[in-house]
């Protein structure tokens, strides 16, 4: 893990966060600046800066991320009305922490196209 990385510090319990899921591969926690009533961040424990840095050996990890998202959406009771998942890649798309993470947002109506 890279200790300069905010999410690595959260994963290592050096920076507090409100965890909603933990397993050997991932953690999920509440976003500090939520953009919806439900706004969770799902992060691999492995430090991967962006989607551009994924390797073929990460395929199972990505599949696991989406299985956890499905579980968290059901636990948050947003699975029926709808929810959004977002990976931001690099600054032009709004990525501010360079540790791969998926946003799970729900609990309100979303418009299209997004901002």
Please write out the topology:
Blueprint: H1 6-11, E1 19-22, E2 26-30, E3 38-44, H2 59-75, E4 83-86, E5 102-106
Antiparallel strand pairs: 1-2, 2-3, 3-5, 4-5
The tally of helices reads: 2
Shape: globular
Helix content: 10-25%
Summarize the helix and strand pattern as letters.
HEEEHEE
β-strand amount: 15-25%
Briefly summarize what is shown.
The chain is an alpha+beta fold.
Can you characterise this structure?
Helices cover 20% and strands 22% of the residues. It is α+β, with helices and mostly antiparallel strands. The chain has one domain: HIT-like (HIT family, subunit A, 2-Layer Sandwich). The N and C termini lie far apart (32 Å).
Task: List the keywords.
115 residues; HIT family, subunit A; single chain; 2 helices; five-stranded antiparallel β-sheet; alpha+beta; 20% helix
């Amino acid at each position: 893990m890279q200790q300069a990385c905010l999410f690595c510090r959260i994963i290592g319990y050096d920076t507090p966060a409100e965890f909603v899921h933990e397993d050997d591969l991932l953690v999920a926690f509440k976003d500090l600046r939520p953009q919806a009533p439900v706004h969770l961040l799902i992060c691999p424990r492995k430090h991967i800066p962006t989607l551009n840095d994924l390797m073929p050996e990460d395929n199972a990890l990505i599949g696991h991320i989406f299985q956890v998202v499905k579980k968290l959406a059901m636990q948050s009771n947003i699975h029926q009305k709808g929810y959004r998942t977002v990976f931001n890649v690099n600054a032009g798309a709004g990525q501010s922490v360079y540790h791969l993470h998926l946003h799970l947002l729900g609990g309100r109506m979303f418009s299209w196209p997004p901002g």
